[in-house]
């Protein structure tokens, strides 16, 4: 246990950052007080700290240890803040469209080759993502599906046997034997494997008798 020199609270040693030159190897202020102090100092001279941090990054960005630590930190933050990561990525893309366009133009062949190899090695995953994107437009994927359900959908596509296709038992947009319109959902229990010939023969028709077979 250690007492913070700022807030005067006694906390566990995990609440203090390391400092080699001190007797106990820890800073006198706890991490919470350090964070408040650093925030105030940064806001007081934001431009100075931006330049300083940018300079330090340029000097250390090629250091293997820094790269490893930075990747680990970024991955952890992404997992803990999925919505913020999504919003940040969108905003960065909007603000740097010219840069992305220029990069794609310069590395067009390499990008196409990578995409081709990825689709070849991840056929099931690509089919699942494409189907999910298309069916989302048709509002066929319910919002109440859990992450486990989405993982189940992915497994169905990834494990589709060669020569077979993933088919919706009740079509997303189709008709029954009486010619009435039917609309199925994109859920794991509404999927089945059919050969290409069987799928072409079935088309977008739904036969209720097939559920009992």
Uncertain residue ranges? none
Q: Roughly what fraction of the amino acids lie in strands?
A: 5-15%
The general outline is elongated
Mean pLDDT: 85
In spatial order, strands of the major sheet run: 7-6-9
Number of helices: 9
Level of helix content?
Answer: 55-70%
Work out the number of β strands.
9
- The secondary-structure class comes to alpha+beta
Compute the gyration radius: what is it? 27 Å
Commentary on this structure:
The protein has helices spanning 31-44, 46-60, 64-80, 82-95, 97-106, 108-121, 123-137, 147-158, 196-202, and strands spanning 2-3, 10-11, 16-18, 26-30, 164-168, 174-176, 181-182, 191-195, 205-206. With 213 residues, it is an alpha+beta fold. Strand 3 (16-18) and strand 4 (26-30) form a beta hairpin. It is elongated and about 80 Å long. It has a domain at 140-211.
